[in-house]
Amino acid sequence: MKKLIGLVFCSLMVSQAAAADVVYVSGSKHNLSKADFQRSGNTYTANIEVVGDYGQTLIFDIDAIVAGRGYQDNREVCFTYHPDEPPCHESYTEWLPNFRYVVDLKVSCNGIAIGLDSENKNMLVNEGVRVRDTGREVSLLIDNELVTGGNCQQLQVIVDGTELSSIDSIDLDVLVAEAF
What we know:
This protein has one domain (2-69, 99-178): Jelly Rolls. The protein has one helix and 13 strands; from the N terminus they run H-E-E-E-E-E-E-E-E-E-E-E-E-E. It has one helix spanning 2-18, and strands spanning 22-24, 30-33, 38-40, 43-51, 57-69, 71-79, 90-100, 102-109, 112-120, 123-124, 135-147, 154-163, 166-178. The strands form three sheets. Strands 1, 3, 4, 8, 9 and 12 form a six-stranded mixed β-sheet that branches. A four-stranded antiparallel β-sheet has the order 2-13-5-11. Strand 3 and strand 4 form a beta hairpin. The longest helix is centred in the first third of the chain and has 17 residues, at 2-18. It starts with a helix and ends with a strand.
């Protein structure tokens, strides 16, 4: 009998975890990946239906790990050997001393602000030194408790790569629960 109860519980947990498009208040934590988001440039948006907001105090626990590639500005430096030569007879690339990787996590529910977190892996390097390994990863967290008056029906999660070259992966967990 214990095996049957365990099997039923496990099958219920698997079926709940697969439904990442609906979050039930006091339900289980849902995981979303980059594939679950709509992309516009380096901004990724997911809209998630919420069921069970009846005006009670809600706890929002949203955390994300975002990995990608940062960038470093450079400029072309031109020079000539003789004043009669055309400009930029020869050139080289000069790497500027700022490596950038910034990601924002913004969450709202039907226009009600739930929270915002921002993290960076920026680096200041010596001028002329190129950052070879541009891969970075940041952890973002929104943990908030508030009353939405029963108006939280669609959670909007935005992962915004404000200053980076590309987002390679998003691993996001969402939990909306009642305060107890």
